[in-house]
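Weekly puzzle thread! Below is a chain. First person to post its structure in token form gets bragging rights.
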Amino acid sequence: MEPKKKRPARRAVRPPKAYHHGDLATALVEAAEAVLTERGVEGFTLRECARRAGVSHAAPAHHFKDAKGLLTEVARVGFDRLTEAQRAARAAEPELKDLLIAAAVGYIRFALTHPAQFQLMFQRGLIDHDNGRFIQAARAAFAIYVETYSAVTRETVRLESEADKTSNPRVLGQWALIHGLATLAVQGQLGPNRSVSEIAKLTAYARSVLMNAQKLDMTRR
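Winning reply:
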């Protein structure tokens, strides 16, 4: 009788690796920011974000329906950061008359340290401007500016809707100057904008422009 052949031992079937980020949505947002910074909007894909977050290409759909959904969340986070940047800059300024300039410099510094996110935040086709969380974050960021403007000028300004950005010519003019400087700085139109020293130089330049503009505005009142 031939001895029975031993069957090869069965390998234990290991369960699939569990996801250890803890917060997949946050990990995907961080991955999306990195992709935008390195590749721009043209090179942005959900698949690449999933790869960088260490999950399957289908995983982002559990939190964000599509690329537009993820980009909208990146923009929302950006507005939250912009709000905090303005608030922190304002809190560090001891002079009431310079609060608006301080908040504006915080705005511009945020744009220079998060250039890809900043540019995304104001895009129309790439993000969902009807998203409730996005709307709330964007209004909060603008409300900080309006609140600071009111404190410095002692002019009551109410912000009830997105359309209120254009309801007061002075408010619009000041915001246009701040946002315009930030945009020009991010686009490299005002000089190099990569290193810490270059960003410091640009924000110092922006501060001088804003101070001159504020003095001119005060003389016209």
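Puzzle host: Confirmed. Bonus trivia for everyone else. Helices lie at 24-39, 46-53, 67-91, 99-113, 115-121, 132-153, 169-186, 196-220.
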